[in-house]
Amino acid sequence: MKRLFYLTTILLLLLPAGISAGNRKKTPKPNLRILYWNIQNGMWDGQTDNYARFTDWVKQQKPDICVWCEASTIFLTGTAQEMPREDRYLPGHWDELARRYGHKYTYIGGWRDNYPQVITSKYPIEGMAQIVGEAPDSVVSHGAGWARIRVKGETLNLVTVHPWPHSFRMGVSEAEKKANIAAHGGDHYRRTEIEYVCRHTILSQPGAEKELWLMMGDFNSRSRVDNWVYQLPEESTAFLTQDFMREQTPYKDVIHERAPQNFYSTTGGKSRIDYVYVTPPVLEKVVRAEVITDDYTRPVRNPQKISNFWHPSDHRPIVVDLKL
Predict the structure, then answer these.
(1) Would you say residue 22 lies in a domain?
(2) What is the pLDDT of residues 215-252, one digit of tens each?
(3) Domain total in the chain
(4) Alpha-carbon torsion 277, 281, 284, 288, what sign?
């Protein structure tokens, strides 16, 4: 017994620092949690209970910063009928809703239509740019935003995006639609939007690759790093937007970087179209990056098949923990 005790002690001493006897790495305790989610039509599902389940779930996650995509009320509760604009709760009352889960500060990005992106935070938010593009060729369909947040002596740049969702180009006439779909007009338009947003944010700042930048949203596009799942032709235009992000910017796809051998759908189907991109200095600080699927966030198709609505959303949230 004495000999066994000594052998066990020696083995434990030989384990590398940060490795438990169960061969598990100790994860550094994060001090900043960022939560991103496309909440479909301003959390349409939450209108049934005054957003109680939504705010309770957010409180449980304990985020320091939230980025919400599709952050505007649009439809009457339980219907696909548009609500009068004067009756819409969001985005006008995000400050009130955010306080329910502990956030004092809110910021809305560029807002062209019914689908703004909103940032809420425990820390003050400095708005840098509300991006809507320029007609006729560089229109950013749903708008985008760039904000700065200082946390623990560090400056974080947050860029929010939500490009065009359709297979045809924005602005084409009904007569042109069929031909434009055949020409993959939607894929080319998304690529144009993302380049415009990047050139007015991270690519406009010399040395940004050495700073703390995050860009996140529903990109409505697929990445070729997931093509082992999709099995699309290598020349598919579906990859144009993500190819630009991967090849023409300093950003890294944090979910792929953390789990390159795995695939995590961010929708109710089997598509990863929501991304959190970070610069290398942020990636070095990431201790967790995860698409969250739990009893609340798992998308469930509306049983009455009201439009394309899901409960609580047709997308899944992403959480990123940083050790600053």
Answers:
(1) no
(2) 999 999 999 999 999 999 999 999 999 999 999 999 99
(3) 1
(4) negative
